[in-house]
Design a protein that fits this description.
The protein contains 15 helices and 15 strands. It is α+β, with helices and mostly antiparallel strands and 476 residues long. The strands form four sheets. An eight-stranded mixed beta sheet has the order 5-6-9-1-10-11-12-13. Strands 4-3-14 form a three-stranded antiparallel beta sheet, with no helix packed on it. Helix 2 packs antiparallel against helix 3, helix 12 crosses helix 15 (462-473) and helix 14 crosses helix 15. The radius of gyration is 29 Å and the shape is elongated.
Length: 476
Amino acid sequence: MDWEVVIGLEVHAQLNTATKIFCGCPTAFGAEPNSHTCPVCLAMPGALPVLNVAAVDKAIALGLAIGAELNRHSIFARKNYFYPDLPKGYQISQYELPVVGKGTLTVQLADGVEKGVGVTRAHLEEDAGKSLHEAFIGQSGIDLNRAGTPLLEIVSEPDMRSPAEAVAYLKKLHALVRYLDICDGNMQEGSFRCDANVSLRRPGAAYGTRAEIKNLNSFRFLEKAIEYEIVRQRDILESGGQVVQETRLYDANRDETRSMRSKEEANDYRYFPDPDLLPLVLDESRIERIRDILPELPDAKRTRFMNQYALTAYDAGVLTAGRVLADYYEQVAAGVDGKLAANWVMGDLLGALNKAGIEMEDCPVSAEKLRLLVQRIADRTISGKIAKEVFEEIFYRGGEVDAIIDGRGLRQITDVAAIAAMVDAIVTANPQQAADFRAGKDKLLGFFVGQVMKASQGKANPDQVNAILLERLRKS
């Protein structure tokens, strides 16, 4: 009998507020160690926390976007544990009453099937500091710039049944928080990271003992870590052993997980309400104000792209995977064929960005330039083949589309007489191939088209070349 894998994710999204959640220190990444600190985030005696309402608004936005329950009354609690980079000796978090309750996130799987993944809760909390090891020999340094940075921990139900489903969920959530502009989603800097809870069971049986894999900061690492954990737990169970409930780390260099510590239970943290913070109360006007300014969400945009631009579900899904990409595409598609614009954005543009290692936010080709290039294909100023040459120029060296076309003499030849003259010359120069075509070797049409395009330096209109060639070759 097969094993069924059960996966739940706990995602930490760093909220992109200007200041920390309980004090006025900046949250900007990359500052000198311990330069963004104050008595509150250093846990000095007598320093009191004050809640940053911007973090609350961003939590509300996430709750509305996933159709979740918003608790009108929630409380902050102290989660007690010791880490060298946790100056208070406890973390201010939410436990029994989180600001966001149950919701659902719908993900599209590789086979096109949609699956709803339950969200158990999303709660506000502060981040810890960071331990530094690389610059010290036999010692560790502590940087508390990150201590007090606002986090929204989004906890899923154990609804995922494969590494691919877990990756699809994490990608969808990553896109959503960026659409909402509540988190920059930078996984390299740790702004968006997750813990994966993995267990195995026989189909229909009770949940098995889970292992938690901590601090996964890439989609690939999530997939690889879960794949390794499935094999590890299956080997233990099939050899008659028992999986130990524990926290594990994923080592990307060895592509394996290894034990970090035994897994704590909630009562190990001795939660209790933080006496320095009042209960968080949400009123209806605040919720409705946030609802009114929500942007168009990915699922709605995907459906609109399919209807408005006649795109397939796959194309619309790719183009709405990120808000920056979706906005760029809409600018390119303005006034031109939507499918042709999609092909250029998804093919040449994303291919070039990937090859160059450039993020969409830093794209060197403006949407207006690419729109004009697509327009020049549509109005037959240049062929699709010549357009690729122009695109490479503007991507790597810059310049204006029309100036490059005119400066290089790339305008398409559409003069029928000129094309006919080239066709006649090619057919006359290749009498045997012409005879073979007339004898039934239809594939030779490609040979003749290639010869004419070569003679025209790629500038002859392909449709006219095909039509004139067929007319000439079919003459006996």
